[in-house]
């Protein structure tokens, strides 16, 4: 029985390595030149078309905004699924960070020593700074590296820090699950509205509605970045806060 | 520089796979993410580097640690 398992696990390793090699080796061996037409077009026209100096965000909010909507929906479904599983399994899964230890009297000694002073002091102080950095990455996504998704994930880390750092007293409502859920829902609604608004003024789905009024095309990218950042940050933050058992 | 980071990545990834203590494996996995973020930055992809650092080293580590705390820390090795 053991021997058969070993053979199976050896076969699995062999198959996985073979599949990876089959994909990677042709890339290394081929002397076919990389296609450059899209790169050259973006280099020549990207900044003029979108006004965004960071061409990555020019692509995913300008040329390929529709794909971004799909990614946002994927994230929404993932968060909904996680919340569904956590809600089904109840508080038993919320043992995660020893959050019951918050109630000092009923907490078992084994759980209490898991919360160290280090976590309390460092995360509480670092949280707001991480939040500010996340907002910066989100709002300056068109100029510097970053954007809605990146900034949103950094914001989610900040929310986790704040939720870990505050012991009993709540310093901000950002760590309440209900508040985060509302922000996420509002963010997704605003994203849909922002996408549809271009159709009213005739620039199409995910077109810039302000294009006809002489506004810089980059303004639409900033708006989309802010909305996506809030949605992603609130969504992932909501997931992590729910894992700590903070959902009523 | 790139070779050094890649070799370290492979070593850490193997350690993640083979370690029986899942918490050690998780920390090694977050080190893998951090090293990949440095590699991405070094290869002029700062956008990807930010995402990798925030998701790989930050949020996914939180999720893994939560899952380990809620279940068993040691891999039974069967």
Characterization of this structure:
Chain A is an all-alpha fold and 248 residues long. Chain A has one domain. Chain A is built from 9 helices and no strands. Chain A has helices spanning 2-29, 37-50, 55-63, 65-89, 109-112, 117-139, 148-165, 177-200, 218-243. The model of chain B has no long low-confidence stretch (mean pLDDT 88). In chain B, helix 1 (2-18) packs antiparallel against helix 2 (22-42) and helix 2 (22-42) packs antiparallel against helix 3 (46-70). The relative contact order of chain B is 0.17. Chain B has helices spanning 2-18, 22-42, 46-70. Chain B has one domain (2-70). The longest helix of chain B is centred in the last third of the chain and has 25 residues, at 46-70. Chain B has 3 helices and no strands. The radius of gyration of chain B is 14 Å and the shape is flat. By secondary structure, chain B is an all-alpha fold.
Question: How would you sum up this structure in a few lines?
Answer:
The complex is a heterodimer of chains A (248) and B (78). With 248 residues, chain A is mainly α. Helix content of chain A is 69%, strand content 0%.
The domain count of chain A comes to 1
Let me know the average pLDDT of chain B.
88
Order of helices and strands of chain A: HHHHHHHHH
Protein chains sharing the most extensive interface = A-B, 26 and 16 residues
- Biggest sheet of chain A, in brief? none
Mean pLDDT of chain A comes to 81
> Based on DSSP secondary structure assignment, what is the total number of beta strands of chain B?
0
Radius of gyration of chain A: 23 Å
Assembly state: heterodimer
Beta percentage of chain B is: under 5%
What best-fitting shape of chain A do the alpha-carbon axes yield?
globular
């Amino acid at each position: 029985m053991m021997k058969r398992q070993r053979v199976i696990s050896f076969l699995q390793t062999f198959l996985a390595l073979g599949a990876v090699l089959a994909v990677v080796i042709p890339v290394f061996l081929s002397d076919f030149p990389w296609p450059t037409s899209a790169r050259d077009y973006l280099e020549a026209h990207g900044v003029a078309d979108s006004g965004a100096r960071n061409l990555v965000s020019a692509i995913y909010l300008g040329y390929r905004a529709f794909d971004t909507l799909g990614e946002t929906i994927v994230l929404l479904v993932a968060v909904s699924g996680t919340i569904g599983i956590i809600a089904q399994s109840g508080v038993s899964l919320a043992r995660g960070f020893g959050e019951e230890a918050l109630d000092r009297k009923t907490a078992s000694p084994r759980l209490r020593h898991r919360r160290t002073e280090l976590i309390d002091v460092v995360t509480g102080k670092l949280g707001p700074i991480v939040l500010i950095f996340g907002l910066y990455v989100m709002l300056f996504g068109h100029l510097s590296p970053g954007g809605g998704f990146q900034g949103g994930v950094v914001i989610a880390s900040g929310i986790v820090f704040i939720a870990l750092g505050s012991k009993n007293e709540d310093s901000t409502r950002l760590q309440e699950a209900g508040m985060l859920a509302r922000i996420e829902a509002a963010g997704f609604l605003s994203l849909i509205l922002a996408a549809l608004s271009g159709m009213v003024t005739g620039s199409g789905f995910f077109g810039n509605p302000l294009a006809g009024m002489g506004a810089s095309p980059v303004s639409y990218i900033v708006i989309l970045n802010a909305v996506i950042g809030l949605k992603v940050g609130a969504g992932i933050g909501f997931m992590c806060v729910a894992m700590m058992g903070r959902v009523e | 520089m790139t070779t050094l980071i890649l070799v370290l990545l492979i070593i850490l990834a193997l350690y993640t796979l083979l370690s029986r203590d899942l918490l050690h494996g998780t920390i090694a996995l977050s080190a893998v993410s951090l090293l990949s973020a440095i590699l991405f930055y070094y290869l002029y992809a700062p956008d990807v580097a930010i995402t990798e650092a925030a998701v790989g080293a930050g949020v996914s580590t939180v999720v893994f640690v939560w899952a380990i705390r809620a279940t068993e820390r040691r891999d039974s090795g069967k």
